[in-house]
Write a structure and sequence with these properties.
256 residues
């Protein structure tokens, strides 16, 4: 295992273990439709050695009383022990809950989904989208990987048929889920006095602070999440935000 001290010493020499620049992502791959028979939408994302898969399952449910004509989503990230020696079986950990909420918030607050188009019958039936995310191999940067794979799985999703008020999961329509925006996340990590993106697992464990920032296509911030044990100054936050904005613009080419 690479020590924190070694990572910090490399950073002071303006380098990283794999030779990347501080603002450089590893190779990103997005694959759609990996589970076409068992999910309404699915995707796999690889960022370097980090690999995550996601599936979208759709159910009919009752809308919330204050939003009778809107459907909803639920994001769940399960940190499987097979993907990292640092994950354990059992109830969702704090890390899993945070990953789920940050991913959910970026989609929900950006209005990326038109929830009104998920309404089947006002006040009675709406579509509920369950987005389940599973890391297969974890080597850092799950925040950005979960964001990418959730959007890719939603983008892949189509509605199943409704027959006599029940879902026929064996037959799909040609109607895509109404994804109108792509709220992309970039998480900026602070190691020592240096900001970097897309850390390996070893770099993450050497970091003392992080800031996840989600941007829409027009450069608007729709969600943020601060993590780590150390605070960030106002100037550091602005520096991290500007870096995240730059990198999310680059990430968009993977969705063209």
């Amino acid at each position: 295992m690479i020590s924190r001290e070694y990572i910090e010493s490399l950073i002071t020499q303006h380098t990283r273990v794999d030779g990347r620049k501080f603002d450089e992502y590893r190779k990103i791959e997005i694959e759609y439709g990996i589970s076409a028979k068992s999910a309404e939408g699915s995707a796999r994302v690889k960022i370097g050695n980090t690999e995550v898969v996601a599936g979208v399952k759709m159910e009919l449910g009752t809308p919330f009383p204050d939003k009778p004509d809107e459907g909803s989503i639920m994001v769940n990230v399960e940190l499987l022990p097979l993907s990292s020696p640092f994950f354990e079986s059992g109830p969702p950990s704090i890390d899993a809950i945070e990953l789920s909420r940050v991913t959910d918030r970026g989609i929900r607050e950006s209005k990326a989904l038109d929830f009104k188009k998920l309404c089947v019958r006002k006040g009675e039936k709406v579509w509920l989208l369950f987005i389940d995310i599973y890391p297969i191999n974890t080597d850092g940067n799950l925040f950005d990987a979960c964001n990418l794979v959730a959007l890719a799985a939603i983008r892949d999703a189509v509605f199943p048929k409704i027959v006599d008020d029940k879902i026929d999961y064996h037959e799909k329509t040609k109607t895509k889920v109404p994804l109108t925006k792509l709220p992309l996340a970039c998480t900026v990590w602070k190691v020592g006095d240096t900001f970097l993106v897309d850390p390996s697992e070893a770099e993450e464990r050497a970091a003392n602070a992080r800031l996840s920032v989600v941007f829409t296509e027009d450069g608007k911030i729709c969600a943020m999440q601060k993590g780590g044990d150390f605070p960030l100054t106002e100037e550091e936050i602005m520096e991290a935000v500007h870096l995240a904005e730059k990198k999310t613009k680059e990430l968009r080419r993977h969705f063209t």
